[in-house]
Amino acid sequence: MRRLLARRDARIYLTGQVFSLFGDSCLWLAMGVWVRSLTGSNAQAGLVFFFYTAPSLLAPAFGLLADRVRRRSLLLAANALTAVAVLSLLAVHGRGQVWLIDAVMFAYGVSAQVIGPAQSASLTIIVPAELLADANAAFRTVQEGLRLAGPLAGAALFVAVGPHVITVVDAATFAFPVVSLLLLRVREPAPHPAEGGWASQVAAGVRHIWQAPELRQIVVAGACMTTVFGFTETTIYAIVTDGLHRPAAFIGVTGAVQGIGALAGGLTAAPLVRKAGEGRLAGLAMLTAAAGVALTILPLLPLVIAGLVVFGAAIPWLVVALMTLAQRLTPPQLQGRVFAAVEVLITTPQTLSIALGAALITIVGYQALLAAMAVVFAATAVSVLTRPEQRRPRGLGVSGAGLRL
Asked: I need a surface site. Which of 197, 210, 372, 390 has the fewest CB within 10 A?
């Protein structure tokens, strides 16, 4: 981390993102609470997050956009336009304007899908290849920290000063990434010209993943892992209420414990990538996640706490390893599409597994679901750790230093 922060551009860029992420984390929870207070409907409050996640279905198209225009210009436009969209929430004063909150959250979701691939691709220019793991780990650590503090800050602000102040605060935080982007001294190369039809261009990210064995193995294993990962959304409630016999509010404690583990995972991810390589760290993360889930099966508080800490640490390891590997093995003209393809291939099974877990828990019980998760996680770990491609010495890959100044 020290080497990363010693670089001017990396330090400026990361600072801008910290403020932006803080605003995001405050707004998300506050919007659901706002809709609930205006309508009295839990369903309408839940729809806020549906509208935010719906644009993820168009992720491949946004990945192509990030590869077809200058990414710094795209990031500047996305941040500025999102700030304007957020400020439109100042017009909401009653139940009749709830549609505007939904529309803004949809726009927020579009912005996230645009910024994600453009930001990932930009990192390959802002930092040298050997510091990509540090940059990804820094972002993940900030995200995990804000996941703990942001919603609490948002809820406190909502109660203390109301939603309109949160709106202004969040809109103002978009100024920080805009300024940081303008201050960068890197020179971005011109986008590569389009090749082939639109459908072929969109699918290029998936083709690249499939043709790179080292990356393909991790993505396939990760997709298999997330076919049961969504079970956590329902099992955590059962662990607390049925297993530990604690009130549902105790989930706040378990979430904080898992968050502490995630912070530790984010802080240690980059050194582990350098020591073990991305592939082996991904396999280790899957094995660690399996151990963490297994510890939560028995309804004993010390074991559950230990399991949540271990599980929390494993997720940043996996995310940092996968994203760094994808960046390192992807040519500049495909960075956006490969990022989007990874997102779709990993998160789609996870979304489906949330619904599956909710249906199965009443039939087989939460402990059976946890056991299934532990088995699947362990199997994906074995599939990765036994591959000879994941034991090869690391190279700089194709996103090397030629793009940097």
From this structure: 197
Calpha distance 356→374 (Å, rounded): 16
What is the rounded distance in angstroms from the CA atom of residue 185 to the CA atom of residue 341?
29
How many secondary structure helices (H) and strands (E) does the chain include? 17, 0
Distance between CA 7 and CA 2 in Å, rounded? Answer: 9
The pLDDT, as a whole number, for residue 149 is 72
| Of 108, 3, 89, the residue nearest 51 (C-alpha) | 108
What pLDDT does 52 receive?
87
CA–CA gap between residue 84 and residue 4 (Å, rounded): 32
Positive or negative, the Cα torsion across 266, 258, 18, 72?
positive
Cα distances (Å, whole numbers) of residue 153 to 160, 255, 260, 261, 299 = 10, 16, 18, 21, 32
pLDDT in tens, 341-365: 999 999 889 888 888 888 888 899 8
- Give pLDDT < 70 ranges for the chain: 150-152, 155, 249, 392-405
> Buried (b) or exposed (e) across 44-83, using 16+ Cβ within 10 A?
bbebbeebbebbbebbbbbbbbbbbeebbebbbebbeebb
In whole angstroms, give the CA distance from residue 261 to residue 312: 5
pLDDT at 403: 28
Q: pTM higher than 0.85 for the full model?
A: yes
Helix axes 301-328, 278-295, angle to 10 degrees: 160
Q: By 3-state DSSP, what share of the chain in percent is helix, strand and coil, each rounded to 5?
A: 85, 0, 15
Q: Which DSSP state fits 190?
A: P
